[in-house]
Amino acid sequence: MRPFTFTQSQDVDTAVQEVSKEGAKFIAGGTNLLDLMKIDVMSPSHLVDITQIALDTIEETEAGGIRLGALAKNADTAYHELVETRYPLLSHAILAGATAQLRNMATDGGNLLQRTRCYYFYDTHTPCNKREPGSGCSAIQGYNRDLAILGTSEHCIATHPSDMCVALAALEATVQVTGKNGARSIPFANFHRLPGDTPHLDSNLQPDEIITAIELPANGFATHYTYLKLRDRASYAFALVSVAAALELEGNTVKEARIALGGVAHKPWRVPQAEALLHGQQATRENFQKVAEAYLEGAKGFGHNDFKIELAKRAIVRALEQATKKEATA
Amino acid sequence: MKENYTGTPTNRVDGKAKVTGEAKYAAEFEAPGLLHGVVVNSAIAKGKIKRIDTSAALQLDGVHQVFTHENRPGYSWFDKHHQDEDAPPGSPFRPLGSDEIKFSMQPIALVVADTFELARYAALLVQVEYETEPHETNLEANLDQAYKPKKYKSPPPSSPRGDAAQAFERSAVKLEEAYAHPAHHHNPMEMHASIAIWHEGGKLTVYDKIQGVQNSQKYISTAFGIPQEDVQVISPYVGGAFGSGLRPQYQLFLSVLAARELKRAVKVVLTRQQMFSFGHRPHTIQKLAIGASEEGKLQAITHHAFAETSRFEDYNEDVVIWPGVLYDCHNVEVSHQLVGLDVYTPLDMRAPGGTTGTFALECAIDEMAYKLNMDPLEFRLKNYSEKDLNEDKPHSSKELKECYRQGAEKFGWANRMMEPRSMKEGHQLIGWGVAHGAWEAQQQEASAKAVLSPEGKLKVSSATADIGTGTYTVMTQIAAETMGLPLEDVTFELGDSTMPKSPLEGGSWTVSSVGSAVKLVCEKLQEELLKMAQNMKNSPFSEAKPEEVSFANGQMFLTHAPATSLPLTAILEQHEGEPIEAEASQKPDKEQKNYSSYSHSATFVEVQVDEELGTVKVTRIVTAVAAGRIINPKTGRSQILGGSVWGIGVALEEHTVLDHQLGRFMTHDLDKYHLPVNADVHETDVIFVEEKDDIVNPLGAKGLGEVGIVSVAPAICNAVFHATGKRIRELPITLDKLL
Ligand SMILES: Cc1cc2nc3c(=O)[nH]c(=O)nc-3n(C[C@H](O)[C@H](O)[C@H](O)COP(=O)(O)OP(=O)(O)OC[C@H]3O[C@@H](n4cnc5c(N)ncnc54)[C@H](O)[C@@H]3O)c2cc1C
Ligand code: SF4
């Protein structure tokens, strides 16, 4: 680890000022950033600890939704009564991630900004455009079993590893941020980026901006939902493919469908046109299969991860079936 | 009455020390002026170091030295001076030996600084320029380069029996398949660590993570040319090793090198990532051909293994001995060939060869049972061997049939339906599988010392190790029972090279070897006590012969007249407040040579496989084990449970991924290298089957460290087949292979 200076901010404004300094980074739970610093993948010269800022509450908004403070812990969020009763999909997604110990440390804001788990990103002795722009991508020709099949570029095929974010995408959350130029709200679909030719940028958050909260709209799809996570072991493993599925049903007719995929792209993957195929249709396996096909349109494997295309289709069908039957998880 | 400590489930005597943190592991010792070393590893797999620039690192305040091949002190250059007790034939790797890079992550520099943090930072500042050469790390692509080593590390594969090729051709039912086992890394909880403390005059005290302190002692002594008595190696606790501590690893070499040169104490601890920079279980491809008659009698087995090794040592292991050990078949041909690659030399890992070979053989046997449409257990029973056909010797004991019987009953095997995909619950296909395995019960020469204090407290010691297996506890039980003392009055000490000689802790031979020596040394003390008692005035024992006296409850008494007794403390008064001592060495009895001795296991497994998503859950494991006398059923059970959990890992999860373009292991942390977690482990049962064996060693105990793992992975693979109808012959069985 390289030497760095350290400061604790008590409020958003000073935090924003501190982080505007050369080489500065926020640190919240530290469960991702510290690991990456130890292996020299990230080397901020100034750390701004934001855990003293009072941004850890979870409360209802005037619009009838809820607001998750950026510093609320993943565990506290998942077990919060408002979340458990009104947004159980989010609760399940969070609990499918990491381990109990990690969730006790990890914050909601940090979860959004956790970095990819691509093997090569983690090893400074290998070329990686995300870590070192222009050095090349080792994964495209290399071991890419865990990596993306959708929205990839010739520069990077990394995935965003979060589970929580998959649920937030399906629930159409917004991310509240504050920077030197004031506050703004970013729709979840625009928060993370595709790699394109700037794979070193994971999100559209500006370097001087802090996440203050995540807001959820009123509809939490609390009746018909599923978070299905497929992985190589039953816990403490990232998703090969995950699906957050939520349905509004009238009888067996779908009024609204939300589907987001994790583990398949540089951001939680949503295809609203494909979701729309279900609107007004019967909740049947055949219809779910049609949606699954549409969702994976344009998917491309890189050898080791070819299987994800078929797996994602099957997972979508299974998740929608479970959501219909009110089965929350696999 | 005599207390039967052996055979009674006994808590670990070191349990409290471990959970309270009082037990110290290699990296936790203190030394005055301790410096910290951090290793720099190579970025490439093959080539030369063109330039290594340490100036930026050396400029930092508090950095004492950066050792590289350019400035390192001299050390012996002879191969034999670098060969340790577990070294395969060849030329061992010498850290910082030259500018040559032989494998990726090779240690190429050691930064020594006042603190670990500083050393770690300085290590980032070491600039290296390489001249790369093309490397080869792909076993499959280089099978045409396979060779038979001039010398084998383990016994060479046995010569052919009968005519396997012809018998195969004539067989009514034939199977020919290849099976692949990937590379695995040991990943014990405790990372490898050493502290070398230099003393005025050149003597060294070394704390090392190792499975045998005397192996490290001898290695340091010969490699650096230091008299053996000037090196003391200490290792009281080891946080798991699984074979990774059989050979002294490079952190030991580097800490000693730095300590001597700087005349200080130097600690080197490897990081988790660096735990992937030395030995591993080798990637192995096995080709099996099995022929059987229509009635299900085995006619022929050929078993050929192709395994990776480094370019500098010929590592091999017992992959192909299992057809001869496990089955009654008279036409058998086996071979073990190596492919030299630009990797570090593979290293013994729990049941080396057994895990790999049994997986392939037991899956193939299952496949054959299906070709014959015969219950896989019945097929095994039909080809049950009463003899070890490799050696053509009877077994000293073999209760494998009883393992089958008790295991099958507990599991409910009789209710199994033969047809794959015949059991289902919702989306879950259910499969039942069976496999069996064995591990040789060996005894090595070992010594022990016993000291009995005037207060009647016994201390026994031997330079062995406790890698988590329960050595402290088992030796205490054996000594307490032999001497007839309460457990609390007995302590066992280990892990110090000045103690009586002991073999490496490995091969499941510690209980049989060291335990036999402990028993013997206690018997020696008893003879001494009898002599002392006979010298007492009006001694009631004056006419007694050693075989006529017994020891219990802190007393010596005449076996046929227990009322005639003396407290040990009374006898010890003869020694005027001084303790009495004995030392003894126990060698295997010659009679053992006429027999083969193996521990055996039979494992029954239930899996659930999602019919659409391919996820596998191991819902039940029953393992029945016959391993002679079980000295401590509690720690013994833990060994088998650990083997079961590891078997889940072998079958479904473990795999060190090698990127052949980079020639580098890429899954080098515990997020990417998957081991089973609690959520993967469900019902796990262990049955110990009674087995009496008077030949294997004086304790009648065989060994449990390795037999618990071998049969689990193939039983899981066979259960997955039963669930899905799909044969996966390449481990691990991840969900993509079942889609
Ligand atoms: C072994 C392991 C397994 C895991 N498994 C899973 C899993 O299965 N699923 C899953 O979803 N996650 C998993 N995680 C990831 C875990 O969820 C994240 O590490 C965690 O959510 C990050 O939160 P943090 O508060 O610790 O972030 P930190 O590590 O403190 O920060 C992460 C990044 O976010 C930035 N940051 C933090 N807070 C803010 C803010 N308010 N505004 C602006 N920037 C900010 C930091 O500067 C930093 O760049 C795993 C992690 C580990 C170590
Ligand atoms: S996929 Fe992205 S993160 Fe992985 S090596 Fe390529 S550029 Fe780096």
From TrEMBL, chain A:
Keyword Flavoprotein among record annotations: yes
Source organism superkingdom: Bacteria
Pfam families, sorted: CO_deh_flav_C (PF03450), FAD_binding_5 (PF00941)
Molecular-function GO term, any one: FAD binding
Keyword set, alphabetical order: FAD, Flavoprotein
PROSITE patterns: FAD_PCMH
Keyword Flavoprotein applies: yes
InterPro entries: CO_DH_flav_C, CO_DH_flav_C_dom_sf, Diverse_Substr_Oxidored, FAD-bd_PCMH, FAD-bd_PCMH-like_sf, FAD-bd_PCMH_sub1, FAD-bd_PCMH_sub2, Mopterin_DH_FAD-bd
Domain named FAD-binding PCMH-type: residues: 1-221
Stretch forming the signal peptide: none
PANTHER family (UniProt xref): OXIDOREDUCTASE (PTHR42659:SF1), XANTHINE DEHYDROGENASE SUBUNIT C-RELATED (PTHR42659)
Name of the molecule in the record: Xanthine dehydrogenase family protein subunit M
From TrEMBL, chain B:
Aldehyde oxidase/xanthine dehydrogenase a/b hammerhead domain mapped to chain residues: 20-134
A molecular function (GO) term: oxidoreductase activity
Superkingdom, natural source: Bacteria
Classification via SUPFAM superfamilies: CO dehydrogenase molybdoprotein N-domain-like (SSF54665), Molybdenum cofactor-binding domain (SSF56003)
Disordered: region residues: 139-166
Protein name: Xanthine dehydrogenase family protein molybdopterin-binding subunit
Taxonomic lineage from the root: Bacteria, Pseudomonadati, Bacteroidota, Cytophagia, Cytophagales
